[in-house]
Amino acid sequence: MIGAIEAGGTKVVCAVANDLEALAIAPRRRIPTTDPRSTIERVAATLAELTGDESLEAIGVASFGPLLATRGSIAPTTPKIAWRGLNWRTALAEHLGQVPIGLDTDTNAAALAEASLGAGRGEEVVAYVTVGTGIGGGIAVAGRPIHGALHPELGHLRIRRRADDDYAGGCPHHGDCLEGLAAGPAVHARTGASAEDLDPDHPVFDLVAGYLGSLCANLALVLAPNRLILGGGVMGTPGLLDHVRRATAVELAGYLPISGYSLDGPSAIVAPGLGADAGITGAWLLGRRAFEQR
Ligand SMILES: [Zn+2]
Q1: Cα dihedral sign, 176-179-185-188
Q2: 35 Cα to the center of ligand 1, angstroms
Q3: How far is the CA of 155 from the centre of ligand 1 (A)?
Q4: Torsion angle of C-alpha atoms 153, 155, 160, 162, degrees rounded to 10
């Protein structure tokens, strides 16, 4: 049995399954993210309960970041202060014993899942970006999430702000980085309403689409992802995905000799194939890989 943990800022989702078919129908248990000690205690108890009489052979963790994945810990720069330095490996081992643990960011895990089973299936380079209360992004190349000295942190890219945008930006580190300008809280700060409560034709979405178009154009210039997958709550706004495709094409101005980033033919910029299931599926795949490499 392989356990999967998708740890987000507000909730942790847990599931346990023998294989992907079983995972698709396995129950998801949701635990509120509070302090690390009690959250991990509940996560471990939930995994043990879901595993029942079988034994847990590996665990995959798709965690909010930034993450020092080789050490297994959450970086000291995370805005979630109580979680700074939390080591997933030792914390889980304390409750569940020594089992192989695969760990990556929630968005790298989602990129892995989309590249394995979702909208990026069979593609060489797959980028996954979620636009919600924050903006995060992961990248999978040849079926593996990429790491340099760290994992991708696409949400904090610096992009050119529009001249008529007078909002200062909401990122606590950078002010007007991409997340500061285009995530859900930036929409709320400008309009007084959440993205899902606004008319999809509200002018704020023109700004958001423009900024996300800059992100997609930058990613196209760096990696030319075969699929660039955009998910998250803000992307649920009707028409926004098409708007981002147009903004990307405008930014690139016809420079790239490929069709997925122009307005001709099928777009490389697509919605997630796994919907909200990408994170937990990615966590399970990380667990399976840890099991195979044990
Ligand atoms: Zn930032």
Answers
A1: positive
A2: 24
A3: 7
A4: 180
d(CA 225, CA 206): 24
259: left (phi over 0), alpha (psi -120 to 50) or beta: alpha
Q: Residue 90 C-alpha to ligand 1 middle, in angstroms?
A: 29
Q: In what order do the strands lie in the sheet with 135-141?
A: 144-145, 135-141, 125-131, 227-231, 269-270
CA 135–ligand 1 middle distance (angstroms): 9
b/e 153-172 (16+ beta carbons within 10 angstroms → b): bbbbbebebeeebebebbbe
Evaluate if pTM is beyond 0.90: yes
Contact 230, 241 (CB under 8 A): yes
Strand partners for 175: 171
Ligand 1 centroid to residue 169 C-alpha, Å? 9
pLDDT-based confidence at residue 209 (cuts at 50, 70, 90): very high
- Residue reference for tokens 């210039």: 221
Report the distance separating Cα 139 and Cα 113, nearest Å: 11
What is the per-residue pLDDT for 204? 98
